[in-house]
UniProtKB/TrEMBL annotation:
It comes from Sphingomonas qilianensis. NCBIfam families: rSAM_link_UDG. PANTHER family: ENDONUCLEASE/EXONUCLEASE/PHOSPHATASE FAMILY DOMAIN-CONTAINING PROTEIN 1, TYPE II SECRETION SYSTEM PROTEIN K. This is DNA modification/repair radical SAM protein. The keyword S-adenosyl-L-methionine applies. InterPro entries: Aldolase_TIM, DNA_rSAM_put, Elp3/MiaA/NifB-like_rSAM, Endo/Exo/Phosphatase_dom_1, rSAM, rSAM_sf, RuvA_2-like. It comes from the Bacteria. Keywords: Iron, Iron-sulfur, Metal-binding, S-adenosyl-L-methionine. The keyword Iron-sulfur applies. Residues 60-287 form the Elp3/MiaA/NifB-like radical SAM core domain.
Length: 415
C-alpha cells in the first residue's frame, strides 16, 4: 500500500465503492459560501457520482472508500478478508485534500465516504469522523457529506458522525436475520438495529432542540438511510418489502436502497452463481414508491407477488399486478372516486391524480381529458370510468394482461 500514489489509490477505492447504492443526496439543507467565508455549496452541479434530488437537481459526489481492507469476511462482499483483490488505503488528510481539490475544480459538490473495517470498528469510525471533522472545522467545507457508519463502533463515535454529516447510512445488508447470520456471521441484526434506533432518537432530539434554540447543533439534517442486497440469499420480494416497511416505521428512514447481488471473483460456494435480473431491483424500487407515495400497505404489495414464489412479476409493474389481481376494485369513476382509489389506477401518478381532483371541481372529465394527464392512456382505459367512457367488455376480459402489458421490442443500435 505504501508504494501506491494517491491517483492509484483513488482508482482502486473509487471502483470498490461502486457496489454501494445508497449515495443519494436529496433532502439536505441548503448552504453556500456567498458570505465570503468557507468553501463549498449544496446547490446544483455536475460531476463524478451522479445522484438526483426530488426537484431534479443533479448532485455530484466524490464516492470512495477510506480503505477496501477489512477484518470481516462477509461472503457477499468483494472487499472481504479472504477476497483476492488489490488493497489500498487513504489517510484522513488524503481524503480531505482530494475532496477539496475536486471541489475547487468544479468536479463535485460533496463527499460520500464508506470504508472496510481496519484494526477495529472504533478505529475505522474514528478515521471516518476525522475526515468529516477536518472538512467542516479546519476548512469550513459547506458542501454535502454522506458518511457510512459502522454499527459495531462506539455509539459516541456514530453520534459524532451525525454532527458533521448531512446524511448517515447504517446498512442492514440482508433482508432476513437468517440470511445475515449465514452470509455475514460477524455482523449482528441486533447491533445494527440498535445503532439505527439511537440515530433516529438523536435526529428527533436535535430537530426538536433546533426549534427552541438557535444555537443547537445540526445533526444529520438529511436523515439516515440503509441498503439491502437483493438476490444473495433466499429472501423473496415479499420478505424484502415487509422488511423495508418495518425499517421505515421503526427508524424513520429517509430511504431504503436495494442493490442487486453481483457475482464476485473467487466467490464463496454458498453464494448464487448468477446475478438476479436487474429488473427485480427496479420492481422493488417501484414497490417502495407505492408504499411511500401511493398509500399502499406492505400487505397490498405482497398481494401483488406470485403466490407460489413470493416474487413480483418482472414483465409488469407492481401497481398493474395489484390491479389485475383485484379486478373487483375497478373500474374507478374519475369524476367521483376519492384520491386513494384514483392512486390505484395503473398509469395515473400522484401529479396526475392531483390535477384530476383540481380539474373535476369545475367540469366533468372525459377520457381525452385524462389522456392529457398521463403517458399511458391504453393502460388506464380498462380501469377507469369517465364522462364519455365505460370499459364494459374490456374490463371483463380474461386475457386483459397481455392486452395492456408493455410490448417487448428489439431496439436498434443505430436508430
Amino acid at each position: 500500500m505504501a508504494q501506491l500514489d494517491v491517483q492509484q489509490k483513488l482508482a482502486i477505492l473509487a471502483d470498490a465503492a461502486k457496489y454501494d447504492a445508497s449515495c443519494s443526496s436529496s433532502g439536505t439543507s441548503k448552504r453556500n459560501s456567498r458570505d465570503g467565508k468557507g468553501i463549498g455549496s449544496t446547490d446544483g452541479g455536475m460531476g463524478i457520482c451522479h445522484a438526483y434530488a426530488p426537484d431534479g437537481r443533479c448532485i455530484s459526489l466524490l464516492k470512495i472508500l477510506l480503505t477496501n481492507s477489512c477484518i470481516f469476511d462477509c461472503h457477499f462482499c468483494i472487499n472481504r478478508k479472504s477476497s483476492n483483490v488489490r488493497r489500498a488505503r487513504f489517510t484522513a488528510p488524503e481524503v480531505v485534500n482530494l475532496t477539496l481539490a475536486f471541489y475547487r475544480r468544479n468536479y463535485i459538490e460533496g463527499l460520500f465516504l464508506s470504508s472496510g473495517i481496519i484494526g477495529s470498528s472504533n478505529y475505522t469510525m474514528e478515521q471516518i469522523v476525522e475526515v468529516a471533522r477536518s472538512l467542516r472545522e479546519d476548512h469550513h467545507f459547506r458542501g454535502y457529506i454522506h458518511l457510512k457508519t459502522i454499527p459495531d463502533a462506539d455509539p459516541e463515535l456514530v453520534h459524532q458522525a451525525g454532527l458533521y454529516a448531512d446524511r448517515v447510512s447504517i446498512n442492514v445488508e440482508l433482508p432476513t436475520a437468517s440470511g445475515l447470520k449465514r452470509l455475514a456471521p460477524e455482523k449482528s441484526e441486533g447491533r445494527i438495529e440498535t445503532a439505527m434506533k439511537e440515530m433516529k432518537t438523536a435526529i428527533i432530539d436535535t430537530a426538536d432542540a433546533k426549534k427552541r434554540y438557535k444555537s443547537a447543533p445540526r445533526f444529520a439534517p438529511a436523515g439516515q438511510s440503509t441498503q439491502m442486497i437483493v438476490g444473495a440469499d433466499a429472501a423473496t420480494d415479499g420478505d424484502i418489502v415487509t422488511k423495508a416497511s418495518g425499517l421505515y416505521d421503526r427508524f424513520g428512514l429517509h430511504r431504503v436502497y436495494y442493490s442487486a447481488f453481483s457475482p464476485i471473483p473467487d466467490a464463496s460456494a454458498i453464494l448464487p452463481l448468477k446475478r438476479p435480473p436487474l429488473m427485480r431491483e427496479h420492481r422493488l424500487y417501484q414497490s417502495d414508491w407505492l408504499m411511500r407515495f401511493y398509500d399502499y400497505t406492505p400487505a397490498d404489495v405482497v398481494a401483488a407477488t406470485d403466490q407460489a414464489t413470493g416474487m413480483l412479476p418482472l414483465d409488469i409493474d407492481p401497481k398493474l399486478a395489484w390491479a389485475l389481481k383485484f379486478r373487483g376494485s375497478f373500474p374507478v369513476d374519475v369524476n367521483r372516486s376519492p384520491r386513494e382509489m384514483l392512486l390505484r389506477v395503473p398509469g395515473l401518478g400522484v401529479k396526475a391524480v392531483s390535477n384530476i381532483l383540481a380539474a373535476r371541481r369545475w367540469r366533468r372529465l372525459s377520457l381525452a381529458d385524462v389522456g392529457r394527464l398521463t403517458q399511458s392512456i391504453a393502460k388506464v382505459r380498462p380501469f377507469l370510468i369517465a364522462d364519455d367512457w365505460r370499459p364494459l367488455a374490456l374490463s371483463d376480459r380474461a386475457d386483459l394482461r397481455p392486452v395492456i402489458a408493455p410490448k417487448k421490442e428489439q431496439l436498434e443500435l443505430f436508430a
